[in-house]
């Protein structure tokens, strides 16, 4: 494990092989899902204002709530929970995989 | 009994029962407590995260800001839940493996600089003070409501009550039972809401969905479109506010230090999921109070004028309960829930703030030879000084509860979040970068109040409550540039990051 000849490097965008690389992949994927649904949706609502698609977003209702209001106020918190669950399951799995490779009991 | 004496009675009952339950628990399992409570599994850990998070901002401020600003207020709901995603994926397990419990300790260790540590301590205390001002406003409003007195008097009595509660529970050594706290706060918020929905004739089993009809009625009967997106505010303002609250969540000192109460990293991660669920339960409900409030006001023929609405916003949940004619004891339950959330938040923040004054400022800088007793005395005095400072600001509150809280989040997002993010994920970040970053972050946060008059552009890019959308990336860039221009941090720290924080399974 100790590699004294090689200088240490930690960089989110250049993760080292092994557990860290797998972890960074899931982190970036989740941040993408987080950003697109949070901010991307607001851009969509904003861009569609006054058009047919825009009135679809604000007129269609779910649980009597306009679609955009439901999406932001109720679906997004749920989506965040889902993202966290996905992250935890995935990280549990890669931790198990890498610790088995290392032949060490699971933390 | 009338409404207000009922609420005083219920509030006293709730606060007293916390002390009694705590004392009973303490005698039963006196040696099992660690830092901030005993271990109760993933769900218990989640409830502790949620109770640590619940404050006057969640229980009073959130409904108020949605009542006042409709769709724009949802930025608070999203910001205060989505921040946990950032916290979980980017920081939670790594700072746990790093092994430093408080923000100043982390900064001091990672960047190896007493100056950076001192700055981080001062910033963390400033965040606590701003956060407490919002809580004091909430406490003052509830006291004013319960005793039928003016707001100033309410804040003063509230401050006295908080400090005496701290002294009493400190003298008795009452441990915090955060699971019970969450349960009480959650029930005290949702049961009155269910009653309200039932009384108004909406689907009451899940008022979180039931309020949809009220929204439709509001639009049909009174032509009030509550949900119109980006009506008075721009897309930029919405996104800036939401982003600020998210990165602020990832940088709030008292939230970050929650990850150490759980014995292993895996349970720490899963308890975040439960915590987020428990928080979302409250946040799904808050808009319902706002919508019912608007509907009842419209039905009673109360005109919605900006000034009156602003004055009523922070107590809209209580006002709605009164307007709907809920039984007095239930109004008391609602007040007691919000008050205990504010109480425990203030108690926690004042105590950590004072501990930081005693340890990070007094012991580390002013008098390194100070005895244990002297440090304790500084901590006790620090609590009083902080409480007095908060009271002074809260007497003339600068905004709504949610807005004041958002400023604390902006400061955290502009300073502490980048410090942790780069500290964990980029080993080249060094002490010069950290100090430059903190200075830039503080400047970004205070840019509008200080320079807004001179440079009009500043206010549009760094709004007071939402300065981190432009601020946090700017701070990160400054930290990277300054770090690259100055010598690299010691190889020891870089190796520690590579092998312990990111290489525990290599």
State the shape of chain A. Answer: elongated
- What is the C-level CATH assignment of chain B? Mainly Alpha
Radius of gyration of CA atoms of chain B, rounded to a whole number: 23 Å
> What is the overall pLDDT average of chain B?
88
Please count the beta strands of chain B (DSSP E, at least 2 residues each).
Answer: 0
On the 0-100 scale, what is the average pLDDT of chain A?
83
β-strand percent of chain B reads under 5%
Q: What's the number of domains of chain A?
A: 1
Q: What key attributes describe this structure?
A:
heterodimer; A: 107 residues; mainly alpha; 3 helices; 2 strands; disordered N terminus; B: 506 residues; 78% helix; globular
Note the topology.
The complex is a heterodimer of chains A (107) and B (506).
Chain A: H1 19-47, H2 52-59, E1 61-62, E2 65-66, H3 67-101
Helix pairs in contact in A: 1-3
Chain B: H1 3-28, H2 41-53, H3 56-69, H4 74-98, H5 103-111, H6 114-147, H7 151-172, H8 178-200, H9 207-222, H10 235-249, H11 253-256, H12 265-299, H13 306-313, H14 316-323, H15 328-366, H16 372-394, H17 401-425, H18 431-451, H19 456-461, H20 468-485, H21 491-501
Helix pairs in contact in B: 1-15, 2-8, 2-12, 3-6, 3-12, 3-13, 3-15, 3-17, 4-10, 4-12, 4-17, 5-6, 5-17, 6-7, 6-15, 6-16, 6-17, 6-18, 7-16, 8-12, 8-15, 9-12, 10-17, 10-20, 12-14, 14-15, 15-16, 17-18, 17-20, 18-20
Explain what the structure shows.
- The complex is a heterodimer of chains A (107) and B (506).
- Chain A is mostly helical.
- Chain A has one domain.
- Helix content of chain A is 67%, strand content 4%.
- The longest helix of chain A has 35 residues.
- Chain A is elongated and about 60 Å long.
- The N terminus of chain A is likely disordered.
- Chain B has a single domain, classed as Sodium/glucose cotransporter, CATH 1.20.1730.
- In chain B, helix 10 packs across helix 20 and helix 17 runs parallel beside helix 20.
- Chain B: This is VC_2705 family sodium/solute symporter.
